[in-house]
Amino acid sequence: MFELIPYSSLGSVGRLRRDMDDLWKRFLDADLNLPAMAPAAPAFNPVVNVKETEEALEVTAEVPGLKPEEIEVSLCGDILTLKGEKREEREETKGDYHLVERRFGSFQRSFRLPVDVDREKLSAKHKDGVLAISLPKLKQEASTTIKVESA
What we know:
The protein has one helix at residues 12-27, and strands spanning 48-52, 56-62, 71-76, 79-94, 97-112, 123-127, 130-136. By secondary structure, the chain is mainly β.
């Protein structure tokens, strides 16, 4: 019902709305809807590939700059979750200048596994900025056919 009231007849509420619109226009770029200040750094989100073979699911994630202890891999039910936080700090002093750079970002990616996996044989390895996770499939017992007899 509020939308049915003409904008100009709102009095002080209309003025407040115009003032707030003007305030937002000052802080936002009208074309891109981005802050006029420095743009936010993109979130760190590793590229992940999932491959299914006859024996296992193979997951690889690109995590450059992360150490193995900065990555957490968990399996809860049929949800595989990768978490990590990238922190980098560089400080340099030469002559008459002092440079300090800090970069960080955290990520969390979750995937629903399409098959049951053998939880006793899971493994994760980290080498050269690539995390490789092996999820061997659970061996399914062969189905048994039961003969139906008439009673």
